[in-house]
Design goal:
Order of helices and strands: HEEEEHEEHEHEHEHH
Number of domains: 1
Distance between the termini: 35 Å
CATH superfamily: Nucleoside phosphorylase domain
Strand order of the largest sheet: 5-8-7-6-9
CATH class: Alpha Beta
Structural class: alpha/beta
Radius of gyration: 17 Å
Amino acid sequence: MSISAIDLNDPTTDPFEVARHAAGVIAERTGADRHDIALVLGSGWREAGELIGETLATVDHADVPGFHAGAVAGHSGTMRSIAIGDTGRRALVYGTRTHVYEGRGVRPVVHAVRTAHAAGCTTVVLTNGCGGLNPAWEPGTPVLIRDHLNLSGLSPIEGADFVDLTDLYTPRLRQVAREVDPSLDEGVYVQFRGPQYETPAEVRMAKILGGDLVGMSTSLEAIAARQVGLDVLGISLVTNLAAGISDRPLSHEEVLEAGQAAAGRCARLLAGIVGRL
């Protein structure tokens, strides 16, 4: 199967078979028969993989079936195989993700998670940059995702597969994160489709519905992860106050600046969590 011949959105294509093929290519390129934990690094988290361990191999996303080069500034177009200390275990770290607003369809959005499972991972850590609804969470504050509201109108599950999402964001993993950083708060993440930022009215709606964080990713990946049995840890980096919470206009430059300022804390947090899992 050639990379150029793969169309994840072709209804005759089995997305799980493509994930298995992608995992085989990753194993060949990294020299690792399996990986143990996967991390998806969202906006503001680009440098966070550096403290996990030694990078043993780097692979371009575009060289792996079903993947594409990064489409968002602040993301990396490569995935890395990283040694987790001296444990003999490996982390598969994705430097970018596919977003719904790119127009590629839902299957590409969750392909990295399915590939991680096919590569042997039992846990996935999903990170993102987001808008905060709590004024006490200043830009640069990491917040654990306790639950989510999927307002994208989409699902990665096809057919009558009724997946229980009661404890989608694994409580045990959130406890591990709090052992690393007891100051971590929790919140409900609300996914909109984007790419436009939310209006103040939409932010008020999200808050009324119980949301604490707003963004354009993560929930579909988390659902796909639970479908295949992965444990899920979600962490948002508040990069700005959401529209209407602050009187400042929103910009992607602000997201990048907040991520750079919080890079050290985020890197230490992720390294500490991965080291304990």
